[in-house]
Amino acid sequence: MKYGARNQVKGRVKSIKEGNIMSEVLVELPGGGEMTSVMTMNSLRDLDLKVGDEVKVVAKAVNVLLVKE
Hints:
The protein has one helix spanning 41-47; strands spanning 7-18, 22-28, 34-40, 54-59. It has one domain (7-59): CATH 2.40.50.100. The protein is globular, with a radius of gyration of 13 Å. It has 1 helix and 4 strands; from the N terminus they run E-E-E-H-E. It is mainly beta. The chain has a 4-stranded antiparallel beta sheet with strand order 3-2-1-4. The N and C termini lie far apart (40 Å). 3% of the residues are buried. Strand 2 and strand 3 form a beta hairpin.
């Protein structure tokens, strides 16, 4: 599969919270960091994601904000 996003990192599904329509998938990254993806329940089922699965996190954003407080 080809895609235009260049920001990619492999990780492992740490937890999945299922709602009625949406789900939240927490991915543990190498080095201990985490990223969360929110997707429809249909997408979760289509991907057949389960805790422990290895996945690739692909991020493409128009805006990336840095905040220094």
